[in-house]
Specification:
Chain lengths: 120, 336
Amino acid sequence: MSLAKSDILIDEFPEEPAAIQRLLELLRDATSRVGRREYRADRLYDLVRPSSYRVLIQILTSAVDKGMLNRTFRVLSSSGGGIGDFPAVKEIPLVLYDSRMGRDVEVSTDDIELIFVVQQ
Amino acid sequence: MPDDHINRENTVLDLLSEATSLSVVSEFLRAKNLTHSAGSWKDMREKRLLPYLRDFSITLDELVTLVSSAEESGDQHIFLFHCTEDPLEMLDRDGVHKNLRRLGLEHLINGPDMNRMPQIPTIVDVRWNTADVDLSLVVKVAEVRAKRVLEKERAFHGKFIKIYSDKPVRAVNVAKLHRNGVLELRIQSHDTSKYDADLNRFIRLINSFFPMTRFGETSLSTAKDTMWARREELRELIRYTDASVIDEQGNRIRAATGSDQSNLSDSAAGKSVDYMLQQDANAYCSDSNLWFVKSEKLVSPIHVLLNGASNEFAVPRKCSEADYEYVFSQIRHFNR
């Protein structure tokens, strides 16, 4: 991870030094291991412990903009598990093939989950 | 009997059936040592409530109070926050009255607005729960939502059309700030699982009472982990029907009982969730579907969903205020 990006993130959120340090530690740990790590926003709230959820989203948005982690919108099958990852909600089709069920399904907003991904 | 009294009586009885459950009204009658059983709302109205009103066993004001408290309990998604500053300033009566006057809501100082179907989301009640001191401040917003009901499906010129009707229904959202700084934002449930937009709209309405920059979200992850880990010991208190666990790769295991009357505590399926939690230190309980079991302290079993946002839980069915308060206190207890 670029040191400059970390420093910029710390400078951007001077009132959240502990939360930023926890996020950077999490990113360092995740990128040091093989494979991809992914987190829902509610999980990151528990791990990063910012002052509020609003601040967490601001921090994560900035980190995504800097390429420190990726954001993806996952469509979930009613049987459990994802059936498609998309970079933006507007790119999700109305109907999607559910490989877990073996048929096309209509996508509802209830089926969409926001995921943050860290890749080595 | 004057027409306006009968109209008010009908409005209150209508609100009672819309906003509460038969068991809540039955419990209210039982507490007054009155015959309380009724198989339907029609029976409850015609065989119990109307005769009791006529012979003064109960009063209309008591039913108004019951509506007010019961429509605030259950059938809600509850979001928990904690105050990062001194909460007592926000409980101060002079400050709240000044804010009400500034908002043109000074009539609420004298009591709630019983407007059943306000045209726009409206603050209809601002009140304190008080013992020796003010224990909490409640701000209630009523709104009209469209409940969409499928009426018919038809094929038409190569298209398939579903026709829905929108039925207006009253919905109530409640903010309650406790003296210790805990803030509950209760949003009445609807047919979809996402509540971000409802929560943000509600926060804008009540922000002058409870400025949200003074609050942080209270994660319920400790309660989720603790209740699941202690489920054998707590089997007289809690019954699990679903539990999900997710690891850092996004893999998930969901254990679910076959019958919704069963308990995962008895099952190897539940132990498979334990196994994943033991094998992977980064795996965590993401979603739980559980019931608080009927007991001396709980009149009816209460269904609770622990999923969604980190500070969110849901009580999907209407319940009595006392039952809600009991469940809320238990969740907070296990979240310590």
